[in-house]
Specification:
Layout: H1 2-5, E1 9-12, E2 19-20, E3 23-24, H2 28-37, E4 41-46, H3 53-62, E5 72-74, H4 75-86, E6 91-95, H5 98-106, E7 110-111, E8 118-121, H6 129-140, E9 144-147, E10 153-156, E11 159-162, H7 164-175, E12 180-181, H8 188-197, E13 204-208, H9 211-220, E14 224-228, E15 247-249
Parallel strand pairs: 1-4, 1-13, 4-5, 6-7, 6-8, 8-9, 9-12, 13-14, 14-15
Antiparallel strand pairs: 2-3, 10-11
Helix pairs in contact: 4-5, 6-7
């Protein structure tokens, strides 16, 4: 316990670690206040591309937590960084929320539904057969298929809901093309988090609730991993995987007890 408490900083997943939907989880307020009081460096890293850092900051504010927008990094931002590094000035057809489009615009990647370089998919509540049809047409015409994250489902206050991996699957099947996923477990996300904090991997612990994305991403990035059982993964699930987290807690509040 002393080793984790003495870490210089933390990278924290959000869904299932900090909140479910619009409901903050037990112990989170105490943990966040502890990080601030102890002058720990921290960034909230989320595979969800649905909200901007400012919107995420406001969301936590409504839950009673004051965290500035510069503490957030999303898969939408990582996707935009990736496409800009691969093909500066490219264009994209996007199935996703406004935050994903904004992240792409911020990197000068503009919308194109005629002959885009990429089809980009993220979580959205405006999913439609028409959009799937269009995406399939564009991928078959040569556009590269990109997913903001590979998550099949995600936790909400109403239970488990489909995420990007589920939404992109019909396009992959119909086109016989596999998407490239930028979000966790792709180590790109954690490397961006480390860069944002300006820390070395051994100075940080990564806290997540999913064995299949969070914990494997931490292990492959050589970062100490903390699994919390407040999200998708249960204690019984851990033994189903050929790798293990370094620490296991019921929730983030237990880290500082």
């Amino acid at each position: 316990m002393e080793e984790i408490l003495n870490k210089k900083g933390f990278i924290c997943d959000m869904d299932g670690v900090i909140y479910h939907g619009n409901q903050i989880l037990d112990g989170v307020e105490a943990f966040v206040n502890w990080m601030i009081e102890k002058d720990k460096m921290f960034v909230f890293l989320t595979n969800s591309p649905e909200k901007t850092p400012h919107e995420l900051s406001m969301k936590l504010e409504r839950m009673g937590l004051s965290v500035s927008p510069d503490h957030f990094y999303t898969s939408a931002m990582a996707t935009a960084e990736f496409l800009n590094s691969q093909n500066p000035g490219c264009t994209a057809y996007v199935i996703g929320e406004a935050a994903l489009t904004k992240a792409l615009y911020d990197k000068h990647i503009y919308m194109n539904d005629v002959n885009p370089d990429y089809v980009v998919v993220g979580e959205t509540r405006t999913y439609s057969f028409e959009k799937i049809e269009k995406a399939i047409e564009l991928v078959n015409s040569g556009a590269k298929l990109i997913g903001a994250n590979p998550d099949i489902v995600g936790p909400t206050e109403h239970g488990i809901m489909p995420a990007t991996g589920s939404l992109i699957a019909p396009i992959e099947i119909a086109t016989n093309r596999k998407a490239y996923f930028v979000g966790k477990p792709n180590p790109l996300m954690l490397r961006h988090g480390l860069k944002k904090l300006g820390c070395h991997s051994d100075e940080i612990a990564f806290i997540g609730d999913r064995m299949d994305t969070d914990i494997i991403a931490g292990i492959e990035s050589n970062i100490d991993t903390v699994l919390v059982l407040s999200g998708v993964t249960s204690k019984e699930d851990i033994d189903k995987f050929p790798y293990r987290p370094k620490y296991v807690f019921g929730g983030v509040g237990e880290i500082i007890k």
